[in-house]
Amino acid sequence: TGPKPVSPTGTPSRDDRAASAQQGEWLTTAQGDRLYDTDHSLKAGPRGPVLLQDHHLREKITHFDHERIPERVVHARGAAAHGVFRGYGNAAGVTKAAFLGEGMETEVFVRFSTVLGSRGSADTVRDTRGFATKFYTTEGTFDLVGNNIPVFFIQDAIKFPDIIHAGKPHPDREIPQAQSAHDTFWDFVTLHSEATHHTLWNMSDRGIPRSYRMMEGFGVHTFRLENAAGETTLVKFHWKPRLGVHSLVWEEAQIAGGVDPDFHRRDLADAIEAGAYPEWELGIQTFPDTPEQTFEGIDLLDPTKIVPEELAPVQPVGLLTLNRNPSNYFAETEQVAFHVGHLVPGIDVTDDPLLQGRLFSYLDTQISRLGGPNFAQLPINRPHAPVNDMLRDGMHQTAVHRGVAPYRPNSLDGGCPFTAGAETGADIDVPVALPASRKVREAPATFDDHFSQARMFWLSMSAPEREHIVNAYSFELGKCYEQAVKERGLQSLANIDPDLCSQVAAALGLPAPAPTEPLRDALPSPALSQVGRAWPLD
Ligand code: HEM
Question: Where is this chain compositionally biased, Polar residues type (predicted)?
Fold first, then answer.
């Protein structure tokens, strides 16, 4: 919007100072002291030396020296947009979340990303894509921090540093950048059979989307909803793009990556600028909240599993429209901080052990990435609901808190009362039946099946899609230096499908191993009447 005109008095109001970094007609130092030259340093004569007393020179260079902040440890490369979410009002049977109410409009900010590449890497690489949405609701901020692939590599957050160490570029040469075609990635996913399903999605066309505008999004984990009557339902979140799901083919991705490494971020920004606003429907799959937390034999707490839409159809509950590009990449796309723990009444987490670890990780990493504990005060992170917390001071504190008693109860500042209705916060009151148990470091037996859903995915593919998958595995495994890694890759494919394995083995010039697991077809064939609990939909 450019510099603001100076006010008649020449003094910006307090609001102006908070809202804008640039006011007035002339350049100043950070202290507002007027500058008359920012092109020459102060010297003892035209040929120097430069004088240490030149505060403007030192301020300018010192600030520049500290312009960069750490990039995200994952999902470093991203592109984002503002928009609006409109609730359809048909989810009241399962959740009291106000933003899903009929016609309710909520401002949102969505950041899409690749996972593994650094901030300057190319857009069109084969990778999972992040799809993170911040809903600035009247009840506080709700973040849906999802991906474009509905399952994850691991079942327990304690493995997250390991999979990311394996997926990031090799520590010795720092290559390859943002591609899975390397030994450590394949070493990890072939030694951890629970990664098979996600890896297969990555090797499919889903790993190279045509556009951010043409991707599905998934919350991945199962969440818990609560309606106004206190009844709970388990749920998986989906984003369905109005433009449909489209992918690049490998050759297109390679050419686009070379000719325009910004292919996806340019596509998103250009479309919005042209008024072709991308839209997604938010949908939910619902499941009865039973003590077992399973549905049709699928463990809902296992993030390597989907629930097929044939068993639980996705019910649309609202529409997302992205209609405004960020005006400052750093202030918005870079400084935005999502967190799976940002929840509103009516939506809560489950005991999925991957989700539980994420609840710790995001705040922790953002304290370091965004320089202390006060990043919620940054404009892009500020809730659009009133904030009245008892958090005080800390690095980069910009709020000037009133009162003397940031504790409760107190008798000095009005007692810090809870607002009416606070008992309806996001913690859903479900009976927690913890079985008598010992402390264990182990996964439940229901997490053991690592191949049947990968097989289901492979069997659901059309002939050209299968060909793309065979080519992707052949290329990626073919790039590995270690013979043992290639062989384990083939073993994992044999356990998905012998035909897939033999085609990739032929391309690699290696023998195709026999399956070591029974080939189980995952898709049960229940009548659709067995779909989750009934709830009112228009
Ligand atoms: C970003 C951790 C699993 C989606 C991040 C970041 C961390 C992280 C540290 C960087 C955040 C920042 O600097 O602001 C973890 C851990 C996981 C995990 C510990 C598992 C234990 C997942 C899963 C999904 C996901 C399963 C998808 C469902 C994202 C997205 C971002 C992100 C979309 C980028 C957010 C943005 O655009 O700023 N994750 N993650 N993560 N994660 Fe995860």
Answer: 20-31
Alpha-carbon distance of 108 to 278, in angstroms, equals: 13
Question: Which residues does the annotation mark as catalytic?
Answer: 75, 147
**Ligand 1 lined by 145 (C-beta under 6 Å):** yes
Q: Which of 72, 268, 329 to mutate to test the pocket of ligand 1 (most atoms within 8 A of CB)?
A: 72
The answer to whether 160 is a known ligand-binding residue is: yes
Task: Answer whether 132 contacts ligand 1 (Cβ < 6 A).
Answer: yes
CA–CA distance, 303 with 163 (Å, rounded to integer): 15
Atom of ligand 1 at shortest distance to CA of 360?
Answer: 19
From first to last of its 538 residues, the chain has per-residue pLDDT tens of 344 444 444 454 444 445 567 889 999 999 999 999 999 999 999 999 999 999 999 999 999 999 999 999 999 999 999 999 999 999 999 999 999 999 999 999 999 999 999 999 999 999 999 999 999 999 999 999 999 999 999 999 999 999 999 999 988 888 887 666 689 999 999 999 999 999 999 999 999 999 999 999 999 999 999 999 999 999 999 999 999 999 999 999 999 999 999 999 999 999 999 999 999 999 999 999 999 999 999 999 999 999 999 999 999 999 999 999 999 999 999 999 999 999 999 999 999 999 999 999 999 999 999 999 999 999 999 999 999 999 999 999 999 999 999 998 899 988 877 665 555 566 777 766 666 778 889 999 999 999 999 999 999 999 999 999 999 999 999 999 999 999 999 999 999 999 999 999 999 999 999 999 888 876 544 333 333 323 333 3
160 neighbors 361 (Cβ within 8 angstroms): yes
Quick check: CB of 353 below 6 Å from ligand 1?
no
User: Residue 85 contacts by C-beta under 8 Å, 6 or more apart in sequence?
Assistant: 99, 105, 106, 107, 108, 133, 135, 282, 318, 319, 320, 321
CA angle 493, 499, 505 (to 5 degrees): 60
For residue 75, how far is its CA from the centre of ligand 1 (angstroms)?
Answer: 7
272 Cα: distance to centroid of ligand 1 (angstroms) = 26
Q: Is 72 annotated as a binding residue?
A: yes
